Amino acid sequence: MYNSIYRFDDEMIVNVHAYGVLAAFTPVMHLRRIDGSYFSTYVESYERVWASARPADDALESP
Question: Residue 56 and residue 27: Cα distance in Å, rounded?
């Protein structure tokens, strides 16, 4: 599954998605940057995804 991550400086909202349930009806965590907190876990996860991102193939774009 996946999460929606919304970061605002030292605070973060994480919407934890569940299969078959609309996002509006799933849990939301409000995290703050604190040493050893979940905040760092989500930042590191996001950065790993971002580091592996690549530009969309030009052939897939509409003319």
Answer: 32
